[in-house]
Amino acid sequence: MRDRLKGKAEAAQAKVSEVIGALQTKGGEELARLSASIEEIAPAVESLGYRVLGARITVGVPPSAAIGLGGLSQRVEPERFDAVIAENAGKSTVVAVLKALKHVAGVHSKVTIKGLQADMAEITLGLPPSVSLMFERRPGDAHARRVGDEP
After folding, report:
1. Could you tell me if residue 148 is inside a domain?
2. Which residue among 5, 25, 35, 64 is the one 20 to 30 A from 123 at the CA level?
3. Which stretch of DSSP H or E encloses residue 113?
4. What is the pTM of this model?
């Protein structure tokens, strides 16, 4: 009985190792795809007048990538977004980022925090995808306080 249980445990351990190995291989392939996509994103985003501020790749299950973007305070017409999306139709990750950026641009002016401005966003490509607006003190606003400052 003990030998039978030991055999089953070893078989289960081998199966788990096999699954983990497959996930690592798939994860590595996905990270390479995300890295290449980030390189493709920059020209499309910059053609709209935004700036790529940086990128972050997270190695995990599942892997994810985030791209930091600046220049959100400038207005870009929805038709311009649609044109750039159409130009990049074959690049699914680029299109996903552009659609997320178009959405952020649409809600950007509706989200306000006194003394702060949101000129930056981070778009995370992963499960689940997400968009974060980054708020900072307005330049030259002597009355604005940073989070954590004493009143």
Report:
1. no
2. 25
3. none
4. 0.67
